[in-house]
Amino acid sequence: MLIKCPGCGIDVLEDQLFCGNCGYEMLATILCPGCAKKVPEKKEFCKFCGVNVKLELQLSKERSQAKKEEAAENIKSVAKGVGRAAVVVGSKVWGCLSILMVVLFGIGVLAFVFLLSR
Ligand SMILES: [Zn+2]
Ligand SMILES: [Zn+2]
After folding, report:
1. 29 C-alpha to center of ligand 1: Å?
2. What is the pLDDT of residues 17-45, one digit of tens each?
3. Ligand 2: distance of its center to the CA of 66 in Å?
4. How many helices (H) and strands (E) would you count in the chain?
5. pTM of the model
6. What angle do CA 48, 50, 54 make, to 5 degrees?
7. Which of 37, 73, 90, 114 has its CA 20 to 30 A from that of 24?
8. Whose atoms come closest to the Cα of 16: which ligand?
């Protein structure tokens, strides 16, 4: 089958990779998701395994997109968990410190009273 070269307009064979006249790349090739062989980008179906290349590529794109979103969500939830844990630990530390302050203050007052009473 002959198709027109988009570069110069002459008729070239459909399966030719480059136009013989102007060197235009006629068939950009991609790897078939089904059999990993080089297939023309323009063709919808792989001539080796019959897989719908465009559909498969679209699906795999969507799948990787979904995976990326899922990973981002996981990172977010982990970050949230870490943040919450930090808040809990922080409040515990502050609780311990305030108890310590109260105890130290009490000891100080007791010592002061003890010194006065002598
Ligand atoms: Zn050409
Ligand atoms: Zn294939």
Report:
1. 17
2. 788 899 888 767 788 888 988 887 777 89
3. 24
4. 1, 4
5. 0.42
6. 110
7. 37
8. 1
pLDDT band, residue 49 (cuts 50/70/90): very high
pLDDT score of 27: 67
Residue 27 Cα to ligand 1 middle (Å): 12
* 11 CA from centroid of ligand 2 (Å): 27
Give, rounded to a whole angstrom, the gap between the first and last alpha carbons of the chain: 116
Residue 43, token pair as written in the block: 């063709």
Burial of residue 24, with CB atoms counted within 10 A of its CB: 0-12 exposed, 13-18 middle, 19 or more buried? middle
Q: How far away, in angstroms, is 64 Cα from ligand 2 center?
A: 20
Structure-block tokens of residue 37: 């062989």
The length of the chain, given as a count of residues: 118
**Burial (CB count <10 Å: 0-12, 13-18, 19+), residue 52:** middle
Residue 4, CA distances (Å) to 12, 21, 42 in order: 6, 12, 14
Distances (CA, A) of 45 to 11, 16, 26, 42, 82: 23, 17, 17, 9, 48
Q: How does the average pLDDT of the chain come out, rounded?
A: 88
